[in-house]
Design goal:
Low-confidence stretches of chain B: none
Mean pLDDT of chain A: 82
Structural class of chain B: mainly alpha
Largest interface: A-B, 35 and 38 residues
Structural class of chain A: mainly alpha
CATH topology of chain A: ABC transporter involved in vitamin B12 uptake, BtuC
Helix content of chain A: over 70%
Strand order of the largest sheet of chain A: 1-2
Radius of gyration of chain A: 20 Å
Helix content of chain B: over 70%
Number of strands of chain A: 2
Low-confidence stretches of chain A: 308-312, 315-321
Strand content of chain B: under 5%
Largest sheet of chain B: 2 strands, antiparallel
Strand order of the largest sheet of chain B: 1-2
Shape of chain A: globular
Oligomer: heterodimer
Number of strands of chain B: 2
Amino acid sequence: MRGDKKRLLIFLFIVAVLAFLPIYIKGDYILNVLFLLFLYIIISQGSNIMVGYAGLLNVGQAAFFGIGALVARLAWIGGTPFYLALLAGGLSSVVLSAFIGIPSLRLRGHYFAIGTLALAIIGRITIGNILPGVSFVPRQYLEGYSLLFRYYLALGLSAAVIVVVDRVFNSRLGLAILSTRDDEDAAQAIGINVFKYKMTAFALSSFVVGLGGGLFAFFYISYYYYVPFALLWSFEPILITFVGGAGTVAGPVLGSIFFVILKEAFTHTLGEISILIFGVVLILVILFLPGGLASIPKKLRWRQVKPVLQKEAEGGDSCSQ
Amino acid sequence: MEIMQFATYGLINGALYGMVALGLSLAYGIMGYLNVAQGHFIILGSYGTYWLFRLWGFDPFISIPILMVALFVLGAILYVAVYSWLLKFPVIDRLKSSLLISFGLMLVFENIAILLWTADERAVTTSYSGKVIDLYGLRLPYIGLGTIVLAIIVVIALHLFLNKTYFGKAIRATAQDWEASQLMGINVARTYLVSFALSILIAAPAASVISMRVISPGIGVEWSNYGLVLVILAGVGNINAILPAGFFLGLIEAMSVYLVGAPYMGMAGLVVFVLVLLFRPQGLFRGRAGL
């Protein structure tokens, strides 16, 4: 309980600092970078729910991000208030997840991963053909465009997503989802409806990712309609999640910070090399640090304890998170 | 007649898809590795072919043996440096970890290729590029015929290797049960090393053919994707069915181009793929299981 309180205080402190930051910072650059960071936190939490907590590798996240962006954009430009447009984006993504999940989540193992990859590519090709043009924000909207407002919106949404993920995976629902990840047969044997909980995780993840898509559509003034459907939006959140630490709340946050810093710091000086570095880091993390960046403090702490204890803790680790 | 022409092109594409998918299917069937960076290795091979042609005038078909040696070495190095570490994970995690590792490799290779050769599109243009044989009005491109012949040779050679040679049998035994194989005296570590290198080597003919179409650093994903689709269509680990599945996919695509139009070419195959995934997850050609 005390650990919980400490974490809550740290969390609130960081959010408060970020909330007061725009007062002291001049210029839009930092705010833009932070917006990007919040966006990545949101969508990588989305993939964290799937791959970290539910153990399902959804490689088709680009399709969910894209549909959220598309619906939110069309609704917003069509005159809907932005919050309803964002919600519509998230819900459209949930609807898509029901279409995909109900037939495919009954299959086990790799089929889900490969099937969702196909979905992402189908989405990308379809949108590229149907809507080949650029989406512009109408002139009257541009006059009211405020970066600060979008900054706070992104900050609020990402904080909310972090809280929701943390709360859900400390509840009965979350434990049920975790049990389907750890041992599907055992979960079924003790009366857990595996399909139902997988589908719940899928819908929750899709809603979060769809919200992220809506945020994307609300932020960028003009972009090609197919851009949010690009396969990068599938790969990057998964990679971020694993580098940061899959199955922990802090993991995607750390991964996003690492990713955005790398991307922003090196884009102007090194160009492509930043992504190259990220690729190498990812490989090293997968091979030698399966818990991701988030597990470093724990590893350091456990070094001092007896090896037997360490083994035990690692065995039960995934359940107590 | 026109439909026959489309079908011909479909078969030619299908042969190429088959060659692309063989390596993926091998690595998957033997070690449980899903190596989605395969397309990038192929593109790397294509760049090799391209430079051999540009610098020394090697014909792409002639340079295949050189490429095979180079890719075998590359595969062996990659296995030792990266993929062999995955063996410590349980088999279920191997798939996911290898998928993520190959994502990382994709990023690395793609960006190295951009740094070295820029993002421009290139292609090898030989003296016979674009030349066709006219068979009663049916146009058969030389390169296309070469592709089909190559694909058949590669598949037969692989089949003979896996079924007739001692080492091939050791590979199949390891794929079925590595623990039992180890007890029978097979050197599993070496078998894995060679089979992974083999799964990269087998991409050489595909790399050579692709170099005569179009190559750019970003195109590797598309080929990996075709490979994945075929692995599922053929049924996981079912190497003998890869080429028939390739022809099938090529024909489906050709018919969709004929009926709907070229922009949706990539999609017809994927729709069929999703349907197969939903209704026949064991693959189109069940036959004997696997290797």
